[in-house]
From TrEMBL:
Keywords recorded for this protein, A-Z: DNA damage, DNA repair, DNA-binding, Glycosidase, Hydrolase, Lyase, Metal-binding, Multifunctional enzyme, Zinc, Zinc-finger
Organism of provenance: Streptomyces acidicola
GO molecular function list: class I DNA-(apurinic or apyrimidinic site) endonuclease activity; damaged DNA binding; oxidized pyrimidine nucleobase lesion DNA N-glycosylase activity; zinc ion binding
EC number: 4.2.99.18
Biological-process GO terms, alphabetical: base-excision repair
Family recorded in the similarity comment: Belongs to the FPG family.
Record flagged with keyword Metal-binding: yes
Record protein name field: DNA-(apurinic or apyrimidinic site) lyase
InterPro entries the record matches: FPG_cat (IPR012319), FPG_N (IPR035937), H2TH_FPG (IPR015886), Nei2_N (IPR044090), Ribosomal_uS13-like_H2TH (IPR010979), Znf_DNA_glyclase/AP_lyase (IPR000214)
């Protein structure tokens, strides 16, 4: 599941493969960009912004992509077979003299002027892994709606950029609050810890092939994906339920003993 650390890793792979190299192939498999051809131009850099990727290309253009749930970018040495999925799932191919970056199942893909990147990412809050990180602003954004459930506020990229469903559940556990606790009811000392804790979790995982939030290699997560197994702290069975407006499934995990606050009734326990 792509979150801020995963997108940061994808940006680094793409940057290392493409930056400073001339495009020998530029293929966007979308009707809107069927005739776009940037071959002969140099890739300047690939920058992550929250869960967004910005590939900047000579001539003042940026290829903006977002992975959402299923998208991915794969890098292959030329001559190697592409294995990221069937050909009909390929949305973009950026080729150089020795490598190809192939975008699979990309739900968001647009070509825009670099000067207009704000149209794609200007709404985002401070980036947990970016140079614009501002913990005070992030906390102020979160606390701006004290009635909003903690989990929903963490997922809102306008508050702070980079948290997805995994980190949402893990942060709520570490804060000792259920994802449904209104932010205004989160103890002040714990709220103050939230930005630094979120940043630390993403930073320690951005260079890891496997995400670990517990510090234990044998148990990578405290609650996410662990229902109905016992809590690592108190042995109470972890519970799971969906959180959000119902437009998409957002499975949320919590420990009913270690985490204080409201929780849905009739929640399920996953096998």
């Amino acid at each position: 599941m792509p979150e801020g650390d995963t997108v940061w890793q994808a940006a680094r792979r793409l940057h290392n493969a493409l930056a400073g190299n001339v495009l020998t192939r530029f293929d966007l498999r979308m009707p809107r960009y069927a005739t776009a051809d940037l071959t002969g131009r140099t890739v300047l850099d690939v920058t992550p912004r929250g869960k967004h990727l910005l590939t900047r290309i000579e001539g003042g253009l940026t290829l903006h992509s977002h992975l959402r749930m299923d998208g991915s970018w794969k890098v292959y040495e030329n001559g190697r077979r592409w294995t990221g999925g069937p050909a009909h799932q390929i949305r973009a191919v950026l080729g150089t003299a020795d490598r190809s970056a192939v975008g699979y199942r990309l739900p968001v893909l647009e070509l825009l002027r670099t000067s207009e990147e704000h149209r794609a990412v200007g709404h985002l809050g401070p980036d947990l892994l970016g140079p614009d990180w501002d913990p005070d602003r992030a906390l102020a954004n979160l606390l701006g709606d004290p009635a909003r459930p903690l989990g929903e506020a963490l997922l809102d990229q306008r508050n702070l950029a980079g948290i997805g469903n995994v980190y949402k559940s893990e942060l709520c556990f570490l804060l000792g609050a259920t994802p449904w606790l209104p932010l205004g009811e989160l103890p002040e000392n714990r709220a103050a810890q939230l930005p630094a804790l979120a940043k630390r979790l993403l930073e320690v995982n951005r260079d890891r092939p496997v995400r670990i939030t517990t510090g234990r290699r044998d148990q990578s997560h405290f609650v996410y994906g662990r229902a109905p197994r016992p809590c690592l702290r108190c042995r109470t069975p972890i519970r799971s339920a969906n959180q959000g407006d119902g437009s998409r499934e957002r499975p949320t995990y919590w420990c009913p003993t270690c985490q204080r606050g409201p929780a849905p009734t009739g929640n399920r326990q996953d096998n």
